[in-house]
């Protein structure tokens, strides 16, 4: 035996001896061999169901379902390999059919995009941007610098008054004679604004409705809703009304509504503000997985004041300052052409002492931000040299970070 059969035999034995331990194994098995995305979703659900099973009877049922799913995947794979093609390859080939190749992977693009609010005089200016499948674009900037304005234009909620925008994937271009067919565009875009709109009625019904109006009906509707509910840990809140949810759960619910129908572009404005640390990690990880999903790739446009977190998940960064794009490019390009190094640190000594200690390194700037210091030094002074120097001066360093190539440096 080899390939799927061997893997299935190993997993059967492992699940039978210790099902709780092997939920992850089932998920991996499904990810590798399942030809249907619903089977991969079911594996995740079963793993979660096991952890939630209240007694032996429920555990027994989950165990039976796990083994049944395993057999179903094996059977599907056997019938799908009649042509002799290995299942994983077949899966990849099928998935690739859903993934457009460049240049058809551009969901949104704009050139010299601008918008002026007559009332306040604020101008968003000269934005050039491309949003692609599988990519996360993080937009950062201080309050009032135009992030929401940009997001509302991309989402079709606000009209631009300068430059051009296009949605190449949906065949829509503002420069074309007919202009943009917003119905075609909006049915593919999910916009989760900063101020979440109130939801009426029971949350579960709302999720089913969201999926249904996007063409997901019948059993698939229930399965997709169940999957997203489990994924975002909403099951305990399904009977609740909107006003009974905390801020964090309101956001999770809005995200579930957006993700349940698998949009091509997810625009999400300040999602992390109301989430606790654990929920932030779940949301960020989910966004990364969803963007990269082979079967349903997605482009994500996200804004946040949580700079480390946005930086960690984004492929592309846009930094807006007073409505102008001050940086726009892959995050690896951040700080590439810098002429100095910038460090953030928390030290034991007073500001005057620190200035004295650093004098020999010819600092260009030493700034106290209230909590920590931001120190700018010549390019020749890297992190290890600075740390060595501080140590030699007897300075205790409580926190240290080289932000020369981080978004954070853009804010100083
Ligand atoms: N409808 C409007 N009419 C007039 N001015 C507006 C309007 N909407 C926003 N502005 C102004 O445009 C500027 C940019 O606002 P925007 O909401 O795009 O910024 P932001 O970067 O998203 O801010 P925040 O981080 O606080 O959400 C602000 O000065 C705001 O007061």
From TrEMBL:
Keywords: ATP-binding, Nodulation, Nucleotide-binding, Transport. It comes from the Bacteria. Residues 108-347 form the ABC transporter domain. Pfam families: ABC_tran (PF00005). InterPro entries: AAA+_ATPase (IPR003593), ABC_transporter-like_ATP-bd (IPR003439), ABC_transporter_ATP-binding (IPR050763), P-loop_NTPase (IPR027417). One of its GO terms (molecular function) is ATP hydrolysis activity. Belongs to the ABC transporter superfamily. This is ABC-2 type transport system ATP-binding protein.
